[in-house]
Amino acid sequence: MAASTASRLSPPRLHAAPNHPLRRSRFSPLRAAKLEAVLSIGTHVIPHPRKVETGGEDAFFVGGDGGGVFAIADGVSGWAEKNVNPALFSRELMANSSTFIKDEEVSQDPQILLMKAHAATSSIGSATVIVAMLEKTGTLKIASVGDCGLKVIRKGQVMFSTCPQEHYFDCPYQLSSEAIGQTSQDALVCTVNLMEGDMIVSGSDGFFDNIFDQEILAVINGSPGTDEAAKALAELARKHSVDVTFDSPYSMEARSRGFDVPWWKKLLGAKLVGGKMDDITVIVAQVKTVVIPDDEGSGIELEKVGGEQLAAAGVASAEQSE
Amino acid sequence: MAASTASRLSPPRLHAAPNHPLRRSRFSPLRAAKLEAVLSIGTHVIPHPRKVETGGEDAFFVGGDGGGVFAIADGVSGWAEKNVNPALFSRELMANSSTFIKDEEVSQDPQILLMKAHAATSSIGSATVIVAMLEKTGTLKIASVGDCGLKVIRKGQVMFSTCPQEHYFDCPYQLSSEAIGQTSQDALVCTVNLMEGDMIVSGSDGFFDNIFDQEILAVINGSPGTDEAAKALAELARKHSVDVTFDSPYSMEARSRGFDVPWWKKLLGAKLVGGKMDDITVIVAQVKTVVIPDDEGSGIELEKVGGEQLAAAGVASAEQSE
Q1: Cys-Cys link to B270, which of A3, A245, A263, B5 (CB 3.0-4.6 A)?
Q2: Where residue A175 sits, what CATH number does that domain have?
Q3: pTM, whole model, 2 decimals?
Q4: How far is CA B128 from CA B65, B149, B187, in A?
């Protein structure tokens, strides 16, 4: 029996306690000319359990352009039914992205980067994709097609999150070799102003389908750096993905869309639960500031920051990372 | 007994069917000089059931500047315990916002608008607040402090959503007359590129705490215009807010934070459910394009579009709306 009162749920909302640590530092965009925002980036990829030998179909790249840039592409696995390797498209898309990011026209616009990288990709297949570029002023620019995701964590809470785009359950928007797919014009394009210390957590749907926000926050809070955080997050998602009793974000979403176990299992009291086995890519980036000497007019120092790699350009797939 | 397999949950993700209606019109920002984005805005406010006579503590304003602008402020009710009318701060904040939006410096930057409006507000109290400004190119600029919300709906799905900021459950970030509150510097500041036909649904927490995304989508889909949609959404949220058996977003969040019914009720099988009685403000805006004659260099026509009011400037609270 469900019982409660609405008033039980409506305590007066309290004024913030005087000693709450609310103040934080913030970029003064280009006013304090010596401070520039950069990303300290950690990455980790774990292929689908049945795709370990081929490395899976996710791919990503990380670059040092601007304040830092990264992208993730998730090859759509349905292509395997047509005897097409679904990894080819996502890997070429990321390789092309890492080339075009050097182009001045696209280095400031993730949607143009997607357009150019997509146009240059000749492999057959399709992929969901997300690109994030940090400007030195602290503005993060995002373009996303499909169900890769990105969240920003500030002061221990998720303060920004992208939403997946899909045609229907489990059929995301995707850049494709075929004219029937989406284009960069279909991307969600947005920006968010970041602050020093903000953490970015981005991943393929194989990550976000298998982990809850509260788990992400706990792992981020308990990790010494972005490399460790990315690895710990990917491993927690993998653990959930093969757990047939875990009530994952994916199984909750499936039930909310009307999917269910067969009727005879339902009669026995079963419900649709379980993780979702998939390639898992995680990128964790922390926003830091670097001091640029007055006499340096352009460029940022590419250096080790806090033990993590700062945006050394490169393309990777699970083959290389795992 | 929970039973399923992960593979049951992992169908291959399908390629989009060839006849899927994916293409849509899109703004060509300033390339097609005659097309400008504007908002067709509908609003509806329903005060807390015990605050109908005073009009509640939400306030909002709608203006025609740029492609359209709106803001919502939710006065923090805890001030009533200190014999301060919580509505004064939110109403003055919105009145000041509607004044400063005319200022060229702030008309392009919602965070500067918040800063100036906050600095000019002399009432005692505090409020959560969200401001959204549409540029004529289709870029929506958002600044939010606390737990007012904004979602963008495109092609029948939520493709963008703000996240609430809070100190702890039911204590949101808030602009305040006191130094211990937050400032505009604490705002979530983001932009999202909109397309013709996109729907924006914004509201105070009293709205989003009492309605699910799927319900919002259904109401938007079934409404002939933004006025009707805003009214229907507010009324559905009000219905849920006084329903002690409704398992609302608010009660689900409360349980996830460890809140529960008293132990003796729990022994009887009860669980914490119910809507949340609160002031409910809803703003629904649809992105439309207007054709500007070649010889008009600036400004957009303020006119009736599709039966709804297009951004006639004004400030309102529940006193005036209900």
Answers
A1: A3
A2: 3.60.40.10
A3: 0.84
A4: 22, 10, 10
